[in-house]
Amino acid sequence: MRTIIQRVNYASVFINEKEFSTIGRGLMLLVGFEQIDSIEDLKWMSQKIINMRIFSDEAGKMNLSVKDIDGEIMIVSQFTLHASTKKGNRPSFIKAAKPELSNPLYEQFVKLIKAEFKNKVVTGEFGAYMKIILENDGPVTIFVDSKNKE
Fold first, then answer.
1. 3-state DSSP call for residue 108?
2. What whole-number distance in Å separates Cα of residue 16 and Cα of residue 100?
3. Is residue 118 a part of any domain in this protein?
4. Which of 9, 74, 118, 145 lies 20 to 30 A from 109 at CA?
């Protein structure tokens, strides 16, 4: 499982030119799944994200988590995180999980986040063409791969 974590002041997802979901200050997550991902990857990633200290404290140090600041979370499925660009100019998505596997993984990941995080959690729509508008705070953008835990 791969995740792009963006610290945002706000983020909105639009589907068919209509706002589908929106958050204020918090985390915008782009999540992608591989064929070999398991529930253990989801659990590890959800805990990593909820507890990651990437918000500034009074001294300006990154010492606070999204929980600590009473932030919000947006989760959007993004299969292109598993693009391979080793050969040629067209990315290959052979490692990305097919929708029949990735959709249940996505839904389970959202459930895990909602179970552990009591503030607002919103999503995009799996498989839909979406436009995302956000204001990255910092900018702070972090890439996390559950296969690189150590």
1. helix
2. 23
3. yes
4. 9
User: By CB neighbour count within 10 A (0-12 exposed, 13-18 middle, 19+ buried), where does 32 fall?
Assistant: buried
Q: What is the mean pLDDT of residues 114-122?
A: 96
Take residue 27 and report the two structure tokens written for it.
């985390």
User: What tokens were used for 48?
Assistant: 């990593």
Report if residue 150 sits inside a domain. Answer: no
pLDDT of 56 above 90: yes
Q: How confident is the model at residue 94 (pLDDT cuts 50, 70, 90)?
A: confident
Residues involved in catalysis: 80
Q: The domain spanning residue 82 has which CATH number? A: 3.50.80.10
- State how many domains the chain has: 1
Residue 40 backbone phi and psi in degrees, to 5 = -65, -40
Instruction: Give the residue, 86 or 12, on which the prediction is more confident.
Output: 12
Kindly state the tokens that stand for 141.
Answer: 């953008």
Distance CA 65, CA 77 (A): 22
CA distance readout (Å), 42 to 15, 104, 112, 133: 26, 11, 8, 26
| 67 assigned to some structural domain | yes
- Torsions phi, psi for 80 (to 5 deg): -70, -10
Query: What residue spans of 63-129 are helical by DSSP H?
Result: 99-116
